[in-house]
Write a structure and sequence with these properties.
By secondary structure, this protein is an alpha/beta fold. The chain has 10 helices and 7 strands. The chain starts with a helix and ends in a 7-residue tail after the last helix. About 3% of the residues have low confidence.
Length: 289
Protein backbone atom coordinates (compact mmCIF):
# COMPACT_ATOMS: atom_id res chain seq x y z
CA UNK A 1 0.00 0.00 0.00
CA UNK A 2 1.44 3.34 -1.06
CA UNK A 3 2.08 6.16 1.36
CA UNK A 4 -0.54 8.27 -0.43
CA UNK A 5 -3.26 5.66 0.14
CA UNK A 6 -2.26 5.35 3.79
CA UNK A 7 -2.53 9.13 4.16
CA UNK A 8 -5.98 9.11 2.56
CA UNK A 9 -7.19 6.35 4.90
CA UNK A 10 -5.84 8.24 7.89
CA UNK A 11 -7.57 11.41 6.71
CA UNK A 12 -10.89 9.60 6.24
CA UNK A 13 -10.66 8.14 9.76
CA UNK A 14 -9.88 11.57 11.19
CA UNK A 15 -12.91 13.06 9.44
CA UNK A 16 -15.12 10.20 10.63
CA UNK A 17 -14.00 10.74 14.23
CA UNK A 18 -14.71 14.46 13.91
CA UNK A 19 -18.20 13.76 12.57
CA UNK A 20 -18.94 11.42 15.50
CA UNK A 21 -17.85 14.10 17.96
CA UNK A 22 -20.08 16.67 16.28
CA UNK A 23 -23.01 14.27 16.32
CA UNK A 24 -22.69 13.90 20.10
CA UNK A 25 -23.16 10.72 22.14
CA UNK A 26 -25.33 7.99 20.69
CA UNK A 27 -28.78 7.51 22.24
CA UNK A 28 -28.72 5.03 25.07
CA UNK A 29 -30.76 1.85 25.27
CA UNK A 30 -33.49 2.38 27.85
CA UNK A 31 -34.71 -0.49 29.99
CA UNK A 32 -37.96 0.32 31.83
CA UNK A 33 -37.62 -2.89 33.82
CA UNK A 34 -34.27 -1.84 35.29
CA UNK A 35 -35.84 0.12 38.15
CA UNK A 36 -38.97 1.78 39.52
CA UNK A 37 -37.43 5.27 39.45
CA UNK A 38 -35.28 6.98 36.85
CA UNK A 39 -33.42 10.24 36.27
CA UNK A 40 -33.71 11.76 32.80
CA UNK A 41 -30.36 12.43 31.05
CA UNK A 42 -31.31 14.33 27.87
CA UNK A 43 -27.84 14.37 26.29
CA UNK A 44 -28.18 10.67 25.48
CA UNK A 45 -31.97 10.42 25.73
CA UNK A 46 -31.24 8.10 28.62
CA UNK A 47 -33.40 7.06 31.56
CA UNK A 48 -30.81 6.42 34.24
CA UNK A 49 -32.10 3.75 36.68
CA UNK A 50 -32.09 4.53 40.40
CA UNK A 51 -31.76 1.15 42.16
CA UNK A 52 -32.25 2.55 45.68
CA UNK A 53 -34.30 5.76 45.69
CA UNK A 54 -33.85 8.12 48.62
CA UNK A 55 -37.33 8.02 50.14
CA UNK A 56 -39.24 7.49 53.36
CA UNK A 57 -42.16 5.21 54.11
CA UNK A 58 -45.51 6.95 53.67
CA UNK A 59 -46.42 6.17 57.29
CA UNK A 60 -43.49 8.29 58.47
CA UNK A 61 -44.73 11.49 56.80
CA UNK A 62 -46.78 13.27 59.46
CA UNK A 63 -48.60 16.58 59.74
CA UNK A 64 -49.76 16.71 56.11
CA UNK A 65 -52.59 14.17 56.23
CA UNK A 66 -55.02 16.04 53.96
CA UNK A 67 -52.60 16.69 51.10
CA UNK A 68 -51.20 13.18 51.52
CA UNK A 69 -54.64 11.67 50.98
CA UNK A 70 -55.39 13.90 47.97
CA UNK A 71 -52.08 13.07 46.29
CA UNK A 72 -52.49 9.36 47.01
CA UNK A 73 -55.99 9.28 45.51
CA UNK A 74 -54.91 11.21 42.41
CA UNK A 75 -51.94 8.89 41.89
CA UNK A 76 -54.03 5.77 42.43
CA UNK A 77 -56.54 6.88 39.78
CA UNK A 78 -53.71 7.49 37.33
CA UNK A 79 -52.13 4.09 38.05
CA UNK A 80 -55.51 2.44 37.46
CA UNK A 81 -55.82 4.12 34.05
CA UNK A 82 -58.42 6.72 35.00
CA UNK A 83 -58.25 10.52 34.58
CA UNK A 84 -56.00 12.38 37.03
CA UNK A 85 -54.54 15.87 37.39
CA UNK A 86 -51.06 17.32 37.17
CA UNK A 87 -50.03 18.37 40.69
CA UNK A 88 -48.08 21.32 42.06
CA UNK A 89 -46.93 20.84 45.65
CA UNK A 90 -45.95 24.26 46.97
CA UNK A 91 -45.17 25.98 50.24
CA UNK A 92 -42.85 25.96 53.22
CA UNK A 93 -39.39 24.47 52.92
CA UNK A 94 -38.65 21.12 54.53
CA UNK A 95 -42.27 20.02 54.95
CA UNK A 96 -41.90 16.84 52.90
CA UNK A 97 -43.14 17.85 49.44
CA UNK A 98 -40.67 15.76 47.43
CA UNK A 99 -40.63 13.02 50.07
CA UNK A 100 -44.40 12.71 49.74
CA UNK A 101 -44.24 12.30 45.96
CA UNK A 102 -41.68 9.49 46.24
CA UNK A 103 -43.46 7.83 49.17
CA UNK A 104 -46.85 7.84 47.42
CA UNK A 105 -45.29 6.37 44.28
CA UNK A 106 -43.74 3.54 46.31
CA UNK A 107 -46.99 2.93 48.20
CA UNK A 108 -49.09 2.68 45.02
CA UNK A 109 -46.59 0.26 43.47
CA UNK A 110 -46.73 -1.84 46.63
CA UNK A 111 -50.47 -2.21 46.01
CA UNK A 112 -49.66 -4.07 42.79
CA UNK A 113 -49.48 -1.32 40.17
CA UNK A 114 -46.08 -2.34 38.81
CA UNK A 115 -46.46 -0.37 35.58
CA UNK A 116 -46.23 2.92 37.49
CA UNK A 117 -42.83 4.56 37.06
CA UNK A 118 -41.31 7.79 38.41
CA UNK A 119 -38.94 9.84 36.22
CA UNK A 120 -37.18 12.84 37.75
CA UNK A 121 -36.30 15.75 35.47
CA UNK A 122 -33.78 18.29 36.69
CA UNK A 123 -34.79 21.93 36.56
CA UNK A 124 -32.12 22.75 33.96
CA UNK A 125 -33.44 20.02 31.63
CA UNK A 126 -37.02 21.33 31.39
CA UNK A 127 -36.48 22.35 27.76
CA UNK A 128 -35.94 18.67 26.84
CA UNK A 129 -39.42 17.61 28.00
CA UNK A 130 -40.77 17.11 24.44
CA UNK A 131 -38.06 14.50 23.79
CA UNK A 132 -38.88 12.72 27.05
CA UNK A 133 -42.59 12.66 26.24
CA UNK A 134 -41.86 11.17 22.81
CA UNK A 135 -39.97 8.38 24.54
CA UNK A 136 -42.65 7.74 27.18
CA UNK A 137 -45.71 7.74 24.96
CA UNK A 138 -44.42 4.72 23.04
CA UNK A 139 -44.39 2.56 26.19
CA UNK A 140 -47.01 0.61 28.12
CA UNK A 141 -45.99 2.23 31.41
CA UNK A 142 -47.80 4.88 33.43
CA UNK A 143 -45.17 7.52 34.15
CA UNK A 144 -45.08 10.36 36.67
CA UNK A 145 -42.65 13.01 35.44
CA UNK A 146 -41.34 14.74 38.56
CA UNK A 147 -39.45 18.02 38.90
CA UNK A 148 -38.26 18.98 42.37
CA UNK A 149 -37.80 22.59 43.51
CA UNK A 150 -39.19 24.05 40.30
CA UNK A 151 -38.97 27.82 39.85
CA UNK A 152 -37.94 30.31 37.20
CA UNK A 153 -35.88 33.48 37.41
CA UNK A 154 -35.96 36.75 35.53
CA UNK A 155 -35.38 36.40 31.75
CA UNK A 156 -35.78 32.62 32.05
CA UNK A 157 -37.91 31.40 29.15
CA UNK A 158 -37.76 27.68 29.97
CA UNK A 159 -41.20 27.98 31.58
CA UNK A 160 -42.67 28.15 28.08
CA UNK A 161 -41.39 24.62 27.38
CA UNK A 162 -43.09 23.41 30.55
CA UNK A 163 -46.36 25.11 29.60
CA UNK A 164 -46.29 23.43 26.20
CA UNK A 165 -45.53 20.05 27.75
CA UNK A 166 -48.32 20.37 30.31
CA UNK A 167 -50.84 21.26 27.63
CA UNK A 168 -49.41 18.83 25.10
CA UNK A 169 -49.77 21.17 22.11
CA UNK A 170 -51.79 20.03 19.11
CA UNK A 171 -51.05 16.37 19.82
CA UNK A 172 -52.13 16.54 23.44
CA UNK A 173 -50.32 15.26 26.51
CA UNK A 174 -49.84 11.48 26.35
CA UNK A 175 -52.46 9.61 28.40
CA UNK A 176 -49.74 7.67 30.21
CA UNK A 177 -47.96 10.78 31.54
CA UNK A 178 -48.63 12.91 34.61
CA UNK A 179 -46.59 15.87 35.89
CA UNK A 180 -45.78 16.40 39.58
CA UNK A 181 -43.67 19.38 40.66
CA UNK A 182 -42.61 20.91 43.97
CA UNK A 183 -41.86 24.58 44.56
CA UNK A 184 -41.60 27.13 47.33
CA UNK A 185 -43.65 29.47 45.12
CA UNK A 186 -47.31 29.02 44.32
CA UNK A 187 -46.95 30.71 40.94
CA UNK A 188 -43.42 29.35 40.18
CA UNK A 189 -42.26 32.81 39.06
CA UNK A 190 -40.86 35.47 41.43
CA UNK A 191 -43.16 38.42 42.19
CA UNK A 192 -40.63 40.96 40.88
CA UNK A 193 -40.55 39.12 37.55
CA UNK A 194 -44.34 39.38 37.23
CA UNK A 195 -44.34 43.03 38.33
CA UNK A 196 -41.57 43.88 35.86
CA UNK A 197 -43.60 42.35 33.03
CA UNK A 198 -46.60 44.37 34.16
CA UNK A 199 -44.70 47.67 34.18
CA UNK A 200 -43.02 47.27 30.78
CA UNK A 201 -45.65 45.46 28.69
CA UNK A 202 -47.97 47.19 26.22
CA UNK A 203 -50.84 45.28 27.81
CA UNK A 204 -49.92 44.74 31.49
CA UNK A 205 -52.83 42.42 32.32
CA UNK A 206 -51.96 40.07 29.44
CA UNK A 207 -48.30 39.97 30.53
CA UNK A 208 -49.28 38.97 34.05
CA UNK A 209 -51.67 36.32 32.71
CA UNK A 210 -48.83 34.84 30.64
CA UNK A 211 -46.67 34.42 33.75
CA UNK A 212 -49.32 33.27 36.22
CA UNK A 213 -50.98 30.87 33.78
CA UNK A 214 -48.13 28.38 34.16
CA UNK A 215 -49.45 27.32 37.56
CA UNK A 216 -52.93 27.02 36.08
CA UNK A 217 -51.72 24.06 34.02
CA UNK A 218 -51.58 22.06 37.28
CA UNK A 219 -55.06 20.84 38.13
CA UNK A 220 -54.19 20.33 41.80
CA UNK A 221 -52.39 22.83 44.02
CA UNK A 222 -51.41 21.23 47.33
CA UNK A 223 -50.19 23.71 49.94
CA UNK A 224 -47.64 22.90 52.64
CA UNK A 225 -47.44 25.28 55.59
CA UNK A 226 -45.11 25.65 58.53
CA UNK A 227 -45.89 23.04 61.13
CA UNK A 228 -47.05 23.66 64.68
CA UNK A 229 -45.11 22.46 67.71
CA UNK A 230 -47.57 19.60 68.15
CA UNK A 231 -47.12 18.49 64.53
CA UNK A 232 -43.34 18.72 64.88
CA UNK A 233 -43.33 16.56 68.02
CA UNK A 234 -45.68 14.08 66.33
CA UNK A 235 -43.08 13.70 63.58
CA UNK A 236 -40.37 13.19 66.19
CA UNK A 237 -42.44 10.55 68.01
CA UNK A 238 -43.16 8.74 64.73
CA UNK A 239 -39.49 8.53 63.79
CA UNK A 240 -38.41 7.52 67.29
CA UNK A 241 -40.98 4.71 67.40
CA UNK A 242 -40.16 3.52 63.88
CA UNK A 243 -36.44 3.28 64.56
CA UNK A 244 -36.88 2.07 68.17
CA UNK A 245 -34.75 4.87 69.63
CA UNK A 246 -34.30 4.19 73.37
CA UNK A 247 -34.94 7.65 74.84
CA UNK A 248 -37.57 8.79 77.33
CA UNK A 249 -40.31 10.83 75.67
CA UNK A 250 -39.80 13.86 77.91
CA UNK A 251 -36.10 14.04 77.10
CA UNK A 252 -36.82 13.32 73.43
CA UNK A 253 -39.22 16.27 73.18
CA UNK A 254 -36.93 18.59 75.13
CA UNK A 255 -33.98 17.83 72.86
CA UNK A 256 -36.08 18.03 69.70
CA UNK A 257 -37.44 21.47 70.62
CA UNK A 258 -33.97 22.71 71.45
CA UNK A 259 -32.74 21.39 68.10
CA UNK A 260 -35.53 23.24 66.28
CA UNK A 261 -34.60 26.45 68.09
CA UNK A 262 -31.00 26.20 66.92
CA UNK A 263 -32.24 25.57 63.35
CA UNK A 264 -34.51 28.62 63.41
CA UNK A 265 -37.80 26.81 62.88
CA UNK A 266 -39.80 23.59 62.85
CA UNK A 267 -40.30 21.36 59.79
CA UNK A 268 -40.23 17.75 58.69
CA UNK A 269 -36.66 18.22 57.50
CA UNK A 270 -35.56 19.61 60.87
CA UNK A 271 -37.27 16.67 62.62
CA UNK A 272 -35.40 14.19 60.41
CA UNK A 273 -32.07 15.97 61.01
CA UNK A 274 -32.58 15.73 64.77
CA UNK A 275 -33.45 12.03 64.49
CA UNK A 276 -30.30 11.47 62.45
CA UNK A 277 -28.24 13.16 65.15
CA UNK A 278 -29.95 11.20 67.92
CA UNK A 279 -29.61 7.86 66.13
CA UNK A 280 -25.94 8.56 65.54
CA UNK A 281 -25.36 9.29 69.22
CA UNK A 282 -27.25 6.14 70.20
CA UNK A 283 -25.45 4.08 67.51
CA UNK A 284 -28.76 3.05 65.86
CA UNK A 285 -29.00 2.48 62.10
CA UNK A 286 -31.67 4.35 60.15
CA UNK A 287 -32.84 3.22 56.75
CA UNK A 288 -35.75 5.30 55.51
CA UNK A 289 -36.89 3.01 52.68
Amino acid sequence: MSERIKDLISEVRRLADAMERLAGPAPAENDWEAADCFVWAPQRRHLQPVPRPNRVALTLIRGVDRVRDILHENTARFAEGFPANNVLLWGARGMGKSSLVKAVHADIRAEGFNLLKLVEVHREDISSLPELLDLIKATQYRVIVFCDDLSFDHDDTAYKSLKAALDGGIEGRPDNVLFYATSNRRHLLPRNMIENEQSTAINPSEAVEEKVSLSDRFGLWLGFHKCSQDDYLTMIDGYAEHFSLPLEREQLHREALEWATTRGGRSGRVAWQYIQDLAGRLRVQTDRD
